[in-house]
Amino acid sequence: MQTVRHSEQTLKTALISKTPVLVSQYENFNAGEQRLMNEAFQPNSDLFGPITLHSESDWITSHPETPQDFEQFYNDPKRKIPSPDKCTIYIQAIGSLGNTRIISEEYIKWLKGYCEAFFYGLRVKLLEPIPVSATRCSFRVNDNTQNLQIHAGDILKFLKRKKPGNAFCVVGITMIDLYPRDSWNFVFGQASLTDGVGIFSFARYGSDFYSSHYEGKVRKLERPSSSEYSVFDNYYIPEITSIFLLRSCKTLTHEIGHIFGLRHCQWLSCLMQGSNHLEEADRRPPNLCPICLRKLQSAIGFNIVERYKALLRWIDGESADLPGIMPKHSHEGEVNLPERVEAFKEWKEWIIKCLAVLQK
């Protein structure tokens, strides 16, 4: 295992900058906010640790990138900033998200509530779910995993055409695997900063995706032509567990972060780290490091304490717009969805520690 460590001065400059106007902005944070973000360059911080690399296939090793500090983010002419008339994040479900209508509806409400807390201060709205056929996207059967995949670029073009006038961005979510081009095996998600659209798949977050017993495989003899969308009518959908929900929330907020102009983080252990595979994605925390937190705060303008409190309310199921904890009964049978706090327990404890620092 390799640890990526930066000097205290390097991290301090990445967070605060040496440009007087940005230093002045940083000094406008109250004492508690500065105390929390200064943890970025405290060597023994128990809130923000260094990035660890476990194999040559990890993102930083295989995809060299130039780190983006706060000053570079702030001065990027291409980054998107919400405005009073474009301050809504829209979520577009593509295909079914659960094995019943009730599960699909409850799951997407969970994601909506999480985005409202994470991007505190912006509105989040759900668009009417659509079948794959509505996008007219290309699709294929993956030669390695034998599962159905839809073309991410085609979906992005569809979302761009459908984007509402008051949208900051539109993000598509699906339980169908994605591929960005014929030469690639798969991609977890893809976003366009310029167009303010993104598409993210949770297909590989099921516990059985990489097993020999995966039920989503398509037999070679049954491979469809590129115009027969009926093959998606009864495609396999993994069970929504607590860890599945955690993985979904992390992917969704990571990719929306890119639409705000946040590049892959190479400073500290952070949600905005890149990931090449599921194991690496699981190591990535759900929280932003102080450098990325400052980037997002500067774009949205939220109160840091209130944002963390909103995330706690979501974990505890107290948000007004969130579905209650199951089980439920309906004409579609009994529905059991997991307790959110199961997978988010460690993060809940971490947020409480952050609030203690902020409010000390």
UniProtKB/TrEMBL annotation:
Instruction: Tell me which cofactor or cofactors this protein depends on.
Output: Zn(2+)
Give the InterPro entries listed for this entry.
Archaemetzincin, MetalloPept_cat_dom_sf, Pept_M54_archaemetzincn
Q: Give the GO biological process terms.
A: proteolysis
Which is one GO molecular function term here?
Answer: metallopeptidase activity
The UniProt entry, under Pfam families, shows: Peptidase_M54
Write down the CDD domains for this protein, in alphabetical order.
Peptidase_M54
Keyword terms? Hydrolase, Metal-binding, Metalloprotease, Protease, Zinc
| Free-text function comment from the UniProt entry | Probable zinc metalloprotease.
- What family does the Swiss-Prot or TrEMBL record give for this protein? Belongs to the peptidase M54 family.
Name the record gives this protein? Archaemetzincin-2
Source species of the chain: Orycteropus afer afer
Organism ancestry: Eukaryota, Metazoa, Chordata, Craniata, Vertebrata
Q: Which gene encodes it?
A: AMZ2
